[in-house]
Amino acid sequence: MDFKLSDEQVKLRQEFYAVCRDLEKRKPHGFAGLESIYDTDEGWKYHLYCAREYAKRGWISIGWPAEYGGKGTIGDKVFFAEARGYYDLPGIDIFGPEMLAPTLLGVGNEELNKRFLPGIASGEVQWCELWSEPNAGSDLASLTTSAVRKGNEYVINGQKIWSTGAHRAHWAFALVRTDPHAPKKQMGITFILFDMKTPGVTVKPLYYMDGAHVYNEVFLDDVHVPVENVVGQENEGWRVTQLLAGFERSSLGAIMMMLRQLEELVRYCNETKIGGKLLAHDPLIRNRLAQMACEIEALRCLGYRIADAQERNEMAGFEASGVHILASELQERLAWLGADILGPYGQVKRSRWSPFDGWYEKWYQQSFVLFIAMGTNEIQRNIISWYGLGLPRMK
Amino acid sequence: MDFNLTEQQQMFKNSVKKFAEQELTPLVDTMDKQNNFPHEIRPKLAAMNLYGIPFDPKYGGAGADHASLALALEEFAKILAAMAIHLQLQHVVNDRFNKLATEAQKKQWMPAICEAKKVGCFGFTEPDTGSNPKMIKTVAKEVKDGYIINGAKRFITNAPWADVMCVFAKLEGDISLFFVETNRKGFSTGPKMDKLGLRGTDLSDVFFEDVHVPKDHLMGGKGGKFDALKDAMTIGKLCLSAQCVGLMQASLEEAIKYSMHRMHFDEPIFNLQAIHWLLAEMASRLEAARWLTYRAAFLKDQGQDTIKDMAITKLFVTSTAVDVCRWGMQVHGAYGISKEYKIERLFRDAKMYELLEGTSEIQRELIVKRLPR
Question: How many contacts, defined by CB atoms under 8 Å, are there between A and B?
């Protein structure tokens, strides 16, 4: 075992942190996480600005083959995610760089790669994912949105839901049913790309509990899409979704964001007096801060372990499910801790009365979504049970 | 970074695993049910060179690293955690000799402990002082030909049959460290304590009534040994954490095994999603605890272990072990509380680790004082 970073890794990590530190200085007031990227024009502009800054340095395409402008390794990508997480920076969304790009590199043809990878690498083309449907969430293979081939096109009809950022995205990658008579529901599904401006695409907001516009319903009514936009083969879309090998799965971005929040809370407790006594002297608060520090450190170590295994191509998918569960649950507890420490101030939306620019009022509500996004924690536990522990698969 | 075990570490782990399965399994009842220590195991431990894993071979050690020590303790704890505690104590005592004794003393004591000819124990905790080292009341007074020690120590593992003890005492108002042969006049031990878990590791009080030791029994000079105590506790915390990883692994394996055989409405509970989720939770947390422990061992080997790192590791891993063993018990249902199943011992043993080498509350204090401001 060797937990040390190489000199090159240390240097690269420092560079990521330095650039991210500078970008943080331009962050709009009250910017907090995913929600801020999609909810306001200001947040979206900042997201695109960060993306361009990363693109200038070739950082969006880290880990890609050199012929598509790529450089570095998955490990480098982890350090980049870590730095962005620490400063809670946008600029890389999960859809284009993290999901579609590795998919194209895995199963896309030369033409698709040349058409779509440059837009992702430059940050100029932003993507959304149209997978979930009203009756197909965790059981995604039950999707019913149909794509009927007519000549050189598919005509798509159906409804997608929980589509993050669909109202901002330029393009979408969708799963559609091209063979409704396939013997198994996982068969007959096709992975396809289309422009969100295509006639027949209607995006309607699904407002989150705090009123933010992040998620959407997307209605597809006779949407015509050229057949060359299929990724992989027709009816083999399910297999395509299983090939997200390049997807960085250490959760280190989220873990580092928690570390930063913890540091800020400690600073706050060392500066803030309640009843003439520093919060930092309150034994209950000290106890909870220490517990949080300890759990963040444990997760950070596990995150590095997953990154190391992924870089060696030795990772089993269920390991990432474990860190995903632990990180999402800890994020919720951190949100609670922050709200508890701030007391009545924790309820106040961004204003002159709200510490941390209103972060905790927002984060308390946002943190819940982490149990659900990218597969609920219940599904993650199933994955660990089935693939990690060899338990029987449940219907 | 490389999270894989080296070939040497893997081979060592495999050999300890085999040894533990063969030699420790028959001792479970002796230790846990009868609360006795099986002395016949000691020469076998010595033959495997398990009493001095990270120490220099010239002092009888195996010349391996702390990661190997952690792996050995993990494998021991999977079978019989109480024996792992015995092993840990010998390492803690030898570590003090290694760092603070003279060359002659090292040569006198370390090989003897490694070869199971002598047994050591470690004395810090007192009846009125557990978590606050500065409050210890055991005192040493300098006399012409040595020191006279008076006081009492509590919860001293191995004390009833140890040959030598490392003792913290106040000398001229500051904490000093001595080693004391247990056959010296005035040295006595109290009755063996009966306890919740880690049974069979004999635990008792120790009393010093005008115990005289020569000058050279003062280790590392007068005073300033609060640091030596902290250093001893970092190796202790690593050892405890490694044992908790073993306990958790055993708990998970027991829970899976039980769930495959326990029938519920004509099918094994292994088929129930509720059980799957408990097992998945156990597996996830075990994995996080395992890598944090290995990292702590790595830091120790690099000489970069800090109080904060070790406190974080100890707090996370020991509290996780309590959770994981409790969930393992939950999988067993009512059978979990029965002596017929191993899980009840794992559950009892797990709680002990939250209390040793500083309670969880003390670890949190150590951590919070060292958070960046």
Answer: 145
Q: In angstroms, rounded to a whole number, what is the distance separating the alpha carbons of residues A165 and A48?
A: 13
- Chain B nearest-CA residue for A10: B1
Based on the domain organization, do A259 and A362 belong to the same domain? yes
Across the interface, do B276 and A291 touch by the CB < 8 Å criterion? Answer: no
Which residues in chain A land under pLDDT 70?
A: 243-248, 315-316, 394-395
List Cα–Cα distances, A147 to A58, A152, A175, A374, in angstroms. 36, 12, 9, 24
In this prediction the pTM is: 0.84
Residues of chain B found within 8 Å of residue A392, distances taken between Cβ atoms = 270-271
Contact present, B145 and B64 (Cβ < 8 Å)? no
What CA–CA distances, in Å, run from B311 to A326, B88, B123, B304, B314?
20, 17, 20, 14, 5
CA gyration radius, chain B: 21
ipTM of the prediction: 0.74
Residue whose tokens read 């997978």: A131
Contact B1 A2 (CB under 8 A): yes
CA atoms of A168 and A48, how far apart (whole Å): 11
pLDDT, tens digit (0-9, with 9 covering 90-100), for B211-236: 999 999 999 999 988 888 888 889 99
Q: Is residue A117 part of a domain?
A: no
- The active-site residue out of A35, A133, A248, A361 is A248
List, in order of start, the domains of chain B with CATH numbers: 7-114 (1.10.540.10), 120-217 (2.40.110.10), 226-369 (1.20.140.10)
Cα separations in angstroms, B305 against A263, B28, B245, B293: 21, 34, 19, 12
Backbone angles phi, psi at B121, to 5 degrees: -140, 170
Residues A152 and A218 in one domain: yes
In a domain, A395, yes or no: no
Q: Is A299 on the interface with B (CB under 8 A)?
A: yes
- Cβ-nearest to A294 among B256, B291, B312: B312
